[in-house]
Specification:
10 helices; alpha/beta; TIM Barrel
Length: 257
């Protein structure tokens, strides 16, 4: 896998601003694409992307920003973003992040329907709209369904950015879910964990790609059978993002699948 095929979700480096230093480092590492977040605040990054010969094919956007549809689409177009990705439902202000996913089947179903209602307007503007999973969408509901199914099954054109690490953290099989939604997958997050014996929800359990226990040759081999365009590294709280990126890139650059 070549370095220029690999992206970074910029959220991974949010604690190491300014962004100019981050983009400069990523460009020097041989990366070509970055995945943004909170794009409504990032219009100024267009200059940085151009300066460091980077592009952004995708961005995470908050579910609540979809209510300002025209504004968010305008911001995405300025950055020539192709895929808009919702990373999670909206929670109550000040609440714990995990509480965002504390929903019954009816609530998950309603969220999926509302999210799907925006798909067409994004397509009309030459973009796709997708969803990014965490571990919590694999907490089985009383009916036997997974929350992820409640989200993705309402509209065949709603896309999927599968976070392969969070699938594992949710005690689910990334191969199974990759196959199930192969026609929807346009991006993946590559996240690794140092040991299966740790609490994988704890960000301190995350490590550089290849230093953990996930079999990336097998998992990414299955991703090749999808329409995945974006392979984004993500670590939710690295102590040294440069070391994380460099080690992960070196591992993936030497991985054949």
């Amino acid at each position: 896998m070549k370095k220029k095929q690999i992206s970074l979700q910029v959220y991974s480096a949010r604690n190491f601003k300014p962004y100019e230093d981050i983009f400069k480092f990523l460009s020097e590492e041989g990366m070509k694409n970055v995945e943004l977040f909170e794009v409504e605040a990032f219009n100024e990054t267009k200059e940085l992307l151009d300066k460091y010969n980077l592009i952004s094919l995708s961005s995470h956007i908050g579910f609540d920003t979809l209510k300002n549809t025209d504004l968010i689409i305008e911001s995405l177009k300025k950055l020539k973003i192709k895929h808009a990705i919702i990373p999670c439902p909206v929670g109550k202000p000040g609440g714990k992040f995990e509480a965002v996913f504390d929903k019954n089947e009816e609530e998950w179903d309603a969220f999926g329907k509302e999210l799907s209602s925006y798909v067409q307007v994004f397509e009309d503007n030459g973009m796709t709209l997708g969803y990014h999973n965490h571990a919590f969408e694999f907490n089985k509901l009383p009916s036997g369904k997974m929350p992820l199914e409640c989200i993705l099954d309402h509209n065949e054109n709603l896309k999927f950015e599968i976070d392969l690490g969070w699938v594992v953290a949710g005690k689910a099989d990334p191969i199974f879910w990759t196959k199930k939604y192969s026609s929807k997958i346009i991006a993946c997050h590559i996240k690794d964990f140092s040991s299966p014996d740790k609490d994988l929800i704890d960000h301190d359990s995350q490590c550089a790609i290849g230093e953990g226990f996930i079999n990336w040759k097998t998992v990414l081999g299955e991703i090749k059978n999808t329409s995945c365009e974006i392979f984004a590294l993500e670590h939710d709280d690295p102590k040294d993002y440069k070391e994380y990126v460099s080690k992960s890139l070196n591992f993936l650059n030497n991985l054949e699948f």
